[in-house]
Amino acid sequence: MSATAGEHGAAQPREMWTGQVGFILSAIGSAVGLGNIWRFPGVAYENGGGAFLIPYLVALVTAGIPILFLDYALGHRFRGAAPTAFRRLGGGRLKWLESLGWFQVMICFVIALYYTVVIAWAASYFVFSFDLRWGDDTAGFLTGEYLQVGDPGFSFTFVPAVLIPLVIIWIAAIVVLAFGVARGVQRINVIFLPLLVVAFAALVVRSLFLDGAADGLNALFTPDFSALADPNVWIAAYSQIFFSLSIAFGIMITYASYRKRRANLTTPGLVVAFANSSFEILAGIGVFATLGFFAFQQGVDVAELEGLTGVGLSFITFPAIVSQMPGGPIFGILFFGSLAMAGFTSLLSVLQVVSAGFQEKFGLTPRQAAVRVGIVSMVLSVLLFSTTTGLIALDTVDNWANNIGIVLSAVLAGVFAFWVLRKGPELRYHLNAVSTFRVGGVWTLLAGVLAPIVLGYMLIQRIVSLIVEGYAGYPDWYLAVMGWGTVVFFVVAALVLTGVRWRRSPDAFRPWPPLPERMSQADAATTTEGGRS
Fold first, then answer.
1. What pLDDT score was predicted for residue 9?
2. CATH domain 20-503 topology
3. Where is this gene product found (predicted)?
């Protein structure tokens, strides 16, 4: 069978990356996002410092890379966004497995709604850096003057300082998506990723020469090996790897589907994985060298500082540091510019999952999908996250989308692919047939057994914790609506979209390359069943 036969049955040829470099840069641009800069340094510090790198690397090798390869194999072999890929994976027996793909699409849809707001904040603070507009009370400025944070609930009191940059970011994202994969998403990543690396590297170099920088690095990298005996440290490592690689919620499935038939998968996957981890370590160096300076200025230990992760680190602690350091405005411009660029490239990958899913289901062009999906998303994003309750809504939805939605998606993908459908040999064969770095039975064991078990444990632990302890002191009714309600939305929307008729059926499809005769009759029968359905 030819390399292009059986692609879709659609009138339009499938979009493609221009080459391997474009794909790698785009995949790295997706993986390197806000979490690399504001999450990894604090997580490492709180979980054993330098010793955390041990479980971190173990998690990367045993879960991160295997699941990344699984996503690549699904997207590349079955030539579609997540709903198409999972439907074809299920074949004639489990066509309804498409709903797992839509579950992932809905995760991306919701993440995009609030992720865009954080980019808008970063863009605002990029402008504020020129005159240090936040003043001396950075916490008061963020929650008061800038975000005007209210109590948990639902407000239609819009905050113009958030609303305006938010709309601008959405318009920019829609325009990029409308240009398609190669001329839009890839081109932005080719421009932004080198700029991001240069800007952040300059920031790190500057931070290393600050007073107290060594104290900050010692706080981050001094190993506490006793922490390795704590199961929660290992869970934190798997969690960090899992969330930072853009795996298990449709992104890498979609990105791999845009690669040519004869395209290396595993070697670029290793490049993406280790590039992402390298940037996280670089971010840790820059952030903690800067925190060391801040502690030095205040005459306290780094351990006594607050706000070492997330929103507090980026929009409270860092502005305070910028105000005190020599050449602070330049440092602020570099930091918030890097934050905005990293966030924007990741946002594009999240939105591309949604756009691709609707393109394939409803026969839309990239431009039509970008405009329709983008406008609906922008309106919802503005209504939910540009008001005085936006920060609280963001915090709640993000916690449930990441810790429940994505982890559940990963567990289900592994269980269905390896345990129910027993597609492990076929997916492994596909990876080896097109790649230079070959995977063996160990990959099947890691992606199909270890990862679902570890992630399943994480999921159960998190669900129990949220039910028993609640979250962040927010009212139970609010968590029920904005937290658990988000997960219910994922499920209901996935089932509804699965039930909608396809504009062009994706079932007249045969995976390439065909399985060799030496593979078991059961595997061959399972594979061709989907092609004949």
1. 39
2. Amino acid/polyamine transporter I (1.20.1740)
3. Membrane
